[in-house]
Design goal:
Blueprint: H1 4-90, H2 95-98, H3 104-109, E1 114-121, E2 126-133, H4 137-149, H5 151-160, E3 164-165, H6 173-183, E4 187-193, E5 201-207, H7 216-301, H8 309-340, E6 348-351, H9 352-362, H10 364-369, E7 373-378, E8 384-387, H11 389-406, E9 412-420, E10 423-430, H12 453-457, H13 464-474, E11 479-484, E12 488-496
Parallel strand pairs: 7-9
Antiparallel strand pairs: 1-2, 1-5, 3-4, 4-5, 6-8, 9-10, 10-12, 11-12
Helix pairs in contact: 1-7, 7-8, 8-13, 9-11, 11-13
Length: about 500
């Protein structure tokens, strides 16, 4: 009986030990899980803290993005308003209207409700207000006085070409406060107006709204606007200068035209009086010359008595010189008639081949005596001309006669015609002594004769080419000469075609 308890203990001992061991293992496992859970909790806490920091960063970034978006929207709006304002300013070329184009609504789009502009008056040595927006009448006077008292500071802005603002004066609170108080604003920008010519100045903008801080972007926009105003002022002043110069030139042209018109009328009157005088004198000379020639011819006929040789020689000289005088008078009379329009050109379709053939036949004896050849080259498309036959024949005779005087024996005269536009052009060339360049512009003037040895020996009146010129111009043509001393001359003229 005494040995039974011992057997139970002996039996329970291993079970207890196993239970204790199991319990120990369970406690160890639980402890490990607890540690794992605590580690997970710590990690979760850390993750939550990181997420909180990231959330704060996201919120901060979002706020910055919103601010940037607002700033960007403000800049876009400002640029649009600036573009519109610049376009409005640049559409006028009147200086007085430039500042009136700066409208309050456009200024407000830039973020400002107050503005003033001043230009420097060099004569009076003071700034003159040219624009005020957002100010009452009794407020502009004190502001102008403030600007006048501090004109050196504002002149320095113009001289240094720098923009001044409440941002740049953040370290100079005294100056900033003085300007804010004078212009009755909370923040401001002052930008120089710098046209290349004329009076310079400055452009002021400001706002009373303390909740709308200025930015460097605002400074840039206002600086650009001030530059646009300066450019517009320069364009307006340049236009005004050009317009005034144009007006002065126009007035001078009108005055000169009036003087020239009066002078031309006087020349016409003088020319008419000269023509009338020449015509009258020519008529008066023809009667006595006709009588002299008639009596000389009668005496030369020797019907009443036989003339001594000396008397006959003198009478022949009288008769010859009388013919020259009659020709001279006739040329004068013809020139005066053509100039006065009293001679009507009987224009008809004529053949140049026929005209040149008759002239060649008429002057054949003289050509043969001087041993000078005459050739004609009349183009088919320049053969027909619409002219007064007799007058154009005189043109050919006078020019060829002139060529005969100055072309040495063995020389050549050439007549050539060809089409020139809607007219026929005739060139009459010779191989004579030529005409000096300084005399070529004068040879068609009345009584002008080139100063050369041949003219000193050969008599002439200096009216032949003047008559030729008048006849050609009466046909609505032109005549000119090209010549070189020693190589000959070419007289060219144009004639209408049917």
């Amino acid at each position: 009986m005494q040995n039974q308890p011992y057997s139970i203990i002996s039996v329970l001992g291993p079970i207890g030990i196993l239970s204790a061991a199991a319990l120990s293992v369970a406690l160890a496992i639980k402890s490990n899980k607890t540690k794992e859970l605590r580690a997970k909790v710590d990690n979760l806490q850390k993750t939550l803290e990181e997420m909180d920091e990231q959330a704060k960063l996201l919120v901060s970034t979002d706020m910055e993005l919103n601010n940037l978006q607002e700033e960007l929207d403000k800049k876009i709006t400002g640029l649009y308003s600036l573009q519109k304002l610049s376009r409005t300013i640049s559409t006028t070329l009147e200086e007085d209207q430039i500042f009136t184009r700066v409208e309050p609504a456009l200024l407000e789009d830039l973020g400002f409700e107050k503005s003033m502009a001043f230009l420097w008056n060099e004569k009076d040595k003071k700034f003159v207000p040219r624009l005020d927006i957002g100010y009452a009448e009794d407020e502009t006077g004190p502001i102008a006085s403030f600007v006048d008292l501090n004109k050196n500071a504002f002149l320095d802005i113009i001289k240094t070409s720098r923009t001044l603002s409440s941002i740049s004066l953040s370290q100079d609170s005294v100056t900033k406060e003085k300007i804010c108080n004078a212009f009755k604003v909370n923040s401001f920008i002052v930008a120089p107006i710098l046209p290349k010519e004329g009076n310079k100045g400055f452009f002021f903008v400001g706002t009373e709204n303390a909740e709308t801080p200025l930015t460097e972007g605002d400074e840039e926009l206002i600086t650009i606007l001030a530059n646009q105003i300066g450019q517009a002022l320069e364009n307006a002043r340049l236009f005004e200068t050009t317009w005034r110069a144009h007006q002065e030139l126009e007035n001078k042209v009108k005055e000169r035209t009036r003087e020239l018109t009066l002078a031309l009328e006087e020349v016409k009157n003088i020319s008419k009086r000269k023509t009338d005088f020449v015509s009258s004198v020519s008529h008066e000379l023809r009667t006595p010359l006709t009588s002299v020639k008639g009596y000389a011819s009668i005496l030369l006929a020797s019907k009443l008595w036989v003339l001594p040789d000396e008397v006959r020689a003198r009478l022949e000289k009288i008769n010859k010189h009388t013919d020259e005088l009659v020709q001279f008078v006739n040329d004068l009379l013809d020139i005066s008639r053509i100039e006065s329009g009293k001679v009507t050109m009987k224009q008809e379709a004529q053949d140049l081949t026929r005209i040149t053939a008759e002239v060649s036949d008429l002057l054949g004896v003289l050509l043969k005596e001087k041993k000078i050849g005459l050739s004609c080259n009349i183009a088919d498309d320049a053969k027909s001309v619409f002219v007064d036959y007799n007058q154009i024949k005189r043109v050919f005779i006078n020019i060829i006669n002139n060529a005969l005087k100055f072309t040495p024996p063995g020389g050549k005269i050439t007549i050539k015609s060809y089409k020139a536009g809607e007219q026929a052009q005739i060139d009459i060339s010779d191989t004579g002594c030529g005409i000096p360049e300084e005399a070529q512009s004068k040879i068609f003037e009345e009584f002008y004769r080139v100063d050369n040895p041949i003219n000193q020996e050969v008599k002439g009146t200096g009216l032949g080419l003047t008559l030729v010129k008048n006849i050609i111009e009466a046909h609505k043509g032109k005549i000119w000469v090209k010549s070189k001393v020693g190589t000959g001359s070419t007289f060219s003229f144009t004639l209408p075609q049917p």
